[in-house]
Amino acid sequence: MTTQPSLLSQVEAGVAWITLNRTAQRNALDIPTLKNLHALLDEFNADPAVRVVVLTGSGRSFCAGADLAEWAEAEARGDLETSGWTETAHALMSRLYSLEKPTIAAINGTAVGAGMDLTLCCDLRLAAQSARFKAGYTSMAYSPDAGASWHLPRLIGTEQAKRLLFLDELWGADRALATGLVGEVCADEQLLDVAGELATRLANGPTFAFAQTKKLMREGAQRDLPQQLQAELAAGLLCGRSEDGAEALRASVEKRPARFVGK
Questions:
Q1: 55/120 same-domain check
Q2: Whose CA is closest to 195, among 112, 125, 132?
Q3: What confidence score (pLDDT) does residue 74 get?
Q4: Do residues 122 and 103 lie in contact, with contact meaning Cβ atoms separated by under 8 Å?
Q5: In this structure, are 134 and 13 located in the same domain?
Q6: Cytoplasm: present as a keyword of the record (predicted)?
Q7: Nearest C-alpha neighbor of 164 from the set 156, 185, 108
Q8: Which of 203, 221, 241 is the endpoint of a domain?
Q9: pLDDT along the chain (263 residues), means of 10
């Protein structure tokens, strides 16, 4: 009997594709999958051949969230609170959110709980028309545990975040687009092509500057404006001294498209 890998990955033309591949479990996240995805992100972040990361799911679901079967087994053993799922998930969410490379969530179906939280950690969210979003926490008499309470108010505002979390509403792709939960919706059959086109645009861009921009935006909420301006100055100096910065200046003078290398 062949064991199906829980993750599929490939790198092509600077774009790393990661596909959650537990179709029978609707791509639910068990501890081994969380750890493997974390390790894969570390690998891609360190690989200069990877300039963009795209995360999607196999089958009809993007990700059903935590693997409740694994939780039930831990509960039966009496060690649910010490099983390590939450800590492992937190480490993964932090790794994905802090990745230096641009990240795209290509949401092919239902994203529930921690599955939705995975999308929130990505820089850009592209949804198929059949995509559905559900927090899933309060219906289980549980509070958010993988970052939704931090991301959602910042992305869609406090009141819409409370609707999604308190009422545990199931939002379709159009509602998600209208509130700002995703940035684009496309036909199901076009999802991977549209995601690929977006990823290629990013991969051909100044990814060193993207990394500095991501860091500025992540850390900016902790600063006042004068502090942020100082951080922008420091980041700008790094960008100006980079190979991409020099190439952008040459290309501008020579009136040709720039060829960025991400350094």
A1: yes
A2: 125
A3: 67
A4: yes
A5: yes
A6: no
A7: 156
A8: 203
A9: 75 96 93 95 96 96 86 68 83 97 97 96 98 90 88 96 94 97 97 97 95 95 94 94 88 88 87
pTM score of the predicted model: 0.92
Read off the tokens for 138: 């309060």
166-169-172 Cα angle (round to 5):
145
Q: For residue 215, count other CB atoms closer than 10 A to its CB.
A: 14
What is the largest distance, in Å, between two alpha-carbon atoms of the chain? 68
Please enumerate in sequence order all residues whose Cβ is within 8 A of that of 205, keeping only pairs 6 or more positions apart, or say none: 260
* Same-domain check for residues 220 and 135: no
Sequence-separated (6 or more) residues with CB below 8 Å from residue 165: 135, 137, 138, 144, 148, 149, 152
Show the CA angle centred on residue 122, arms to residues 226 and 43, nearest 5°: 105
Tokens of 143: 């509070």
Say which residue the tokens 């594709």 belong to.
17
Handedness of CA 13, 15, 17, 18 (dihedral sign): positive
**Is there a single domain that holds both residue 216 and residue 192?**
no
